Amino acid sequence: MQALAGxxxxxxxxxxxxxxxxxxxxxLGFALIALVRPLFSILGLSDAFGKPxxxxxxxVAITAxxxxxxxxxxxxxxxxxxxxxxxxxxxxVAVGSAILSPILTGQLQGPLAMPFSxxxxxxxxxxxxxxxxxxxMVLQRLVAK
Length: 145
Fold this sequence. Notes:
This protein is an all-alpha fold.
């Protein structure tokens, strides 16, 4: 029984370590930067400038901004921070679309209207954050040399 208790403690220690490493101001700041994408859509700018090019270009630009800020800003643990930013962005977008879509279109749209899309949304944005975080780590190492 003690062996099982030890395994449980190791898991909770790892969780505590990752939780302590989360830098919420940076995570939320990066997530807010990413809100440019849905803002363009809400304002009709993505349609005006052309789809799918505009959302793709915005994603590339946001990623570049994340990498540059995290890389040159010496953000601690950029991988964890930007994965957190990607997930935080996904949560904000899901909740935001649930609030705004009934107001703007008269019906619920977005991830909460299609619950099966929530997990893929979170995973995709976590991967986006991981790629940006890995690039920021490389930039930090290059700058440190």
